[in-house]
Write a structure and sequence with these properties.
Number of helices: 15
Radius of gyration: 23 Å
CATH superfamily of the largest domain: Zn peptidases
Helix content: 25-40%
Structural class: alpha/beta
Shape: globular
CATH architecture of the largest domain: 3-Layer(aba) Sandwich
CATH class of the largest domain: Alpha Beta
Number of domains: 2
Number of strands: 23
Largest sheet: 8 strands, mixed
CATH topology of the largest domain: Aminopeptidase
Length: 541
């Protein structure tokens, strides 16, 4: 009866909230924000550059005009994020030798990589050893390293993780963090490796080589390495063709080792190949920042707690020209999310009666470089994780009109799930699972940085069932974007875009946040979730 009473109370309060809240969300205002942020004037919004400076000034100005209080450092709208920028020179060299045979790989065409030691020059050589997927996951009784000492070695591996249809084993079809390239470098660093070479395949990565090349050819933002801290001399990728050549020196092939890597009995394979690498690197200190605006809640006791709305403002700046265009505008990725964030902030601040808890609107930097801005905020929060009720993120939404469905990957893992379902029902939206779980999108955007410190967090995404469009339009639109525009200069604003669907997603997030902000207790993670321990550590049981 107690459980029933709580759900009944939620239903009555929730119904009142959903009927009372009618946020004034304008697709045209979102359009205007997206058009400006993705214009050539902002030079691709690279962190530490002129375009990034303009973007953050613009977002802060919009927060100020909407009436938000500064939520950053020293009474400003900015949280400074100190990073080191490294850019590998095009003269970089990588070779593989065995016996009297040497294969030289060409920068950009065959390989890309960075020196995570953040030094201007680091020539080295090391023995190559194939380590499968490069995973040690005790909860799945999986260890690609077994008892092999890989200190000082160059690890050759594939991204992704062992194939499975069992959701209890590496998430089944859904990629876990163990499958992400960032984990591969982190684990190799922990084990003292000298370098890592990831052999790219479109199947294991989820995107083509051009995405890797464009993402890694420009400046990469890093947190400074502490004195004495180990770091990789090479965090690199090679094309599938180049990986085939490297492995052939040892008598192996890509398909053969992909199959071997999926076996629990896999053991590291010394390749008998010597890797030589020289990565001349331009190193500079990056002055970049998050933008934070606060709307205080109405409850004297609860206004010290917040709901976070986030979106990353950065893209790839000016990079390798493609068809004569070197500006990576990032219209979809992620001017769209920022447009929604600013419109949400305006609508939230305009409410005559504010929700009980406060709301923090956070535009973060350096997502493209590895979630650096959101990770920095999570490590240096303005409001502690234990005082943060929920984080709702927006990243790369397609402005092709309204959909009948919505994707909230990860929301089902939190106790906010009944509220998410109620809002979707009220808006006539069907919640769909992520259509491409194998791409591991939960671990690829800024909500992951918040989840990592225990905050229930997820991104709101449009579904694929677009109203007024033929069947299959949404899936084809995604594939076309991923193959032709993702992390390319052609991700540009189009006058024909329809922002009504983005306005719907803004309303959807607004209503969820309002519901959470008015509850007596803040959400947590469901039992046995990987982030529950961090939530409990923050003081939430």
């Amino acid at each position: 009866m107690l459980i029933y009473s709580r759900f009944l109370a939620f239903g009555l309060i929730g119904l009142w909230c959903l009927q009372a809240q009618q946020p004034d969300i304008s697709p045209e205002r979102i359009r205007a924000h997206v058009k400006f942020l993705s214009s050539d004037q902002l030079e691709g919004r690279g962190p530490g550059g002129r375009g990034g400076q303009l973007a953050t000034e613009y977002i802060a100005t919009q927060f100020m005009l909407a009436g938000l209080k500064p939520g950053g450092d020293n009474g400003t709208y900015f949280q400074q994020v100190p990073l080191t920028g490294i850019q590998t020179d095009k003269s970089a060299q990588l070779s593989a030798s065995q016996g009297g045979q040497t294969i030289d790989f060409k920068w950009s065409n065959d390989f890309v990589g960075v020196n995570e030691r953040l030094t201007a020059d680091d020539r080295f050589e090391g023995e190559a050893i194939f380590v499968g997927h490069g995973i040690e996951a005790r909860e799945f009784q999986w260890n690609d390293f077994k008892d092999v000492d890989v200190r000082g070695k160059v690890l050759v591996l594939f991204t992704n993780e062992p194939a499975s249809n069992d959701p209890k084993f590496f998430g089944g079809r859904a990629l876990t963090y163990y499958g992400r390239w960032s984990y591969k470098y982190e684990e190799a660093t922990r084990k003292g490796a000298r370098g890592v070479i990831i052999i790219h395949t479109t199947r294991t990565a989820g995107y083509g080589w051009e995405v890797v090349r464009n993402s890694w050819s420009g400046e990469q933002p890093y947190v400074k390495v502490a004195p004495g801290q180990h770091a990789l001399s090479l965090a690199g990728w090679v094309t599938q063709e180049s990986g085939e050549k490297l492995l052939s020196l040892a008598g192996h092939h890509v398909d053969e080792l992909l199959k071997a890597a999926d076996s629990r009995d896999f053991r590291p394979i010394p390749l008998g190949v010597l890797i030589r690498c020289n990565l001349p690197t331009k190193v500079r200190e990056i002055a970049t920042r998050n933008v934070a605006g606060l709307v205080e809640g109405s409850d004297p006791k609860l206004k010290s707690e917040v709901v976070i709305y986030s979106a990353h403002w950065d893209h790839l700046g000016i990079g390798t020209p493609v068809n004569g265009d070197a500006i990576y505008n990032g219209a979809v990725d992620n001017a769209t999310g920022c447009g929604i964030l600013m419109e949400l902030a305006r609508a939230w601040a305009a409410q005559p009666k504010k929700p009980r808890r406060s709301a923090l609107f956070l535009a973060v930097t350096a997502e493209e470089g590895g979630l650096r801005g959101s990770e920095y905020y999570a490590a240096h929060p303005k409001i502690a994780p234990g005082k943060t009720a929920l984080a709702i993120n927006y990243d790369a939404l397609f402005p092709f009109g309204r959909t009948r469905d919505v994707v909230v990957n990860g929301a089902e893992r939190t106790t906010a799930w009944p509220m998410v379902e109620a809002v979707a029902k009220r808006m006539g939206l069907t919640i769909k699972p992520h259509p491409r779980p194998e791409q591991g999108t939960y671990y690829r955007s800024d909500h992951f940085a918040f989840a990592h410190v225990g905050i229930p967090a997820f991104s709101v995404e449009l579904g694929e069932d677009f109203i007024g469009k033929p069947k299959g339009f949404g899936a084809k639109a995604f594939d076309d974007y991923n193959e032709q525009h993702y992390h390319r200069p052609s991700d540009e604003f189009q006058e024909t875009w329809d922002f009504s669907g983005l306005a719907d997603m803004a309303r959807f997030g607004f209503l969820i946040g309002s519901e959470v902000a008015n509850q007596d207790r803040i959400p947590t993670w469901r039992a046995r979730d990987e982030f529950l321990a961090a939530r409990e550590k923050s003081g939430i049981k």
